[in-house]
Amino acid sequence: MQQIQMVDLKGQYQQIKTDIDQAIQAVIDQAAFINGGAVGTFNTALSAYHQGAYVQSCGNGTDALQIALMALELEPGDEIITPAFTYFATVEVVLLLGLKPVFVDVDPQTFNLDPAQLEAAISNKTRAIVPVHLFGQCADMEAILAIAQKHQLKVIEDNAQSIGGSITCADGRIRQTGLMGDISCLSFFPSKNLGCYGDGGALLTKDEALYKKIKAIANHGQYQKYHHERVGINSRLDTLQAAILSVKLKQLDQYNLARQQVAAAYDAGFKHNTHIKTPFKTPGTTHVYHQYTLTLSDDIDRDQLKAALAEKGIPTMIYYPLPCHQQKALTSIYPEQGNFPVAEHLSRKVLSLPIHTEMFEEQIAYIIEQVNQQTGN
Ligand SMILES: *Cc1c(COP(=O)(O)O)cnc(C)c1O
């Protein structure tokens, strides 16, 4: 059996090698390394994938979040609501801009921002909500958007982990992740569902005026070359990465399907295991399984399980071992943080299994067998 990896980027490359190599060579042949033609081509393709939304690609997903917040014209001390359980980048950009992160606990089933606790976190300083579609599953956007509208708050979707996902609304309408908020942010970090071979990111919006602002902010605050109307940043998608992403975007739905098949096999394999909880799938959502994250029962020692699986050749990861409200980068600025018991519990009890687009059936079967064995089932 082939060695099991959390993500198999080499195996994935082998499947698309001819197209990727050609795309890279074409960029080198043209020697247009900054904002070369491949960037525009990719932006257009990404827009088409998102029903024609405006696309601004940028250097990485963290920059995308920062640019999105900068585009909202906020004042220092304005409050931004984020889930307490996410990758810290979501919170870091808020701090970086002198804004104040305010946390809402997550739902123990979906790991996403719990809308039932959202209104209690809103104050007269709240300006925006940044829901995260964590691990590949869309947050409860219908509820979040209704509350945002009621309080006139902007919504920035952190869609770094869930490109290609969707939810079905109460009226039966299917809505794609990244097209529900005012702005949404993508990351093309290599291990993401749509990953490049380095860093990359993008912002999406359906609002033309907002798009123009985003575009200027990502480009040194210029609306017109050498005329700097505001302080922006320099955040560009590399032309080589854009060329690679155009090849991979064509595969994205197939890649997400491959992840869903691995997840379905895991779900079936762990069905009778009472010591682990498999990822909950909200009815009507398309879970794209950026991660397949187990919640361990209290009687399972996570470190022990992780070590035992590693010994059997099965890598696992802990996303995330410390919730946002307990991160020193935050508490050194805002020491007064409440309790977010679900986020705290999850950070002690989650464990992510290998999931990617190139997994073999025998690897999946072996992982199921070993996890069941090690957890006493
Ligand atoms: C990956 C990720 C980011 C940051 O993306 P980078 O491209 O690594 O900067 C932000 N938020 C979430 C939820 C992520 O998973």
> How many separate domains?
2
Which sequence of strands runs across the widest sheet?
1-9-8-5-4-2-3
Q: Going by CATH, what is the homologous superfamily of the largest domain?
A: Type I PLP-dependent aspartate aminotransferase-like (Major domain)
Q: Return the structural class.
A: alpha/beta
Rounded radius of gyration (Å): 21 Å
Oligomeric composition of the shown chains: single chain
Question: Stretches where pLDDT falls below 50 for ≥5 residues?
Answer: none
Give the helix level as a range of percent. Answer: 25-40%
The total count of strands amounts to 15
Q: Can you name the CATH architecture of the largest domain?
A: 3-Layer(aba) Sandwich
Measured distance between first and last alpha carbons: 24 Å
Largest sheet at a glance?
7 strands, mixed
Query: Which shape, going by the Cα principal axes?
Result: globular
Q: What's the level 1 CATH class of the largest domain? A: Alpha Beta
Question: Whole-number average pLDDT?
Answer: 97
Small molecules (ligands, ions, cofactors) in the structure: pyridoxal-5'-phosphate
Number of helices: 12
Q: Give helix and strand order, one letter per element, not per position.
A: HHEHEHEEHEEEEEHEEHHEEEHHHEH
Question: What is the CATH topology descriptor of the largest domain?
Answer: Aspartate Aminotransferase, domain 2
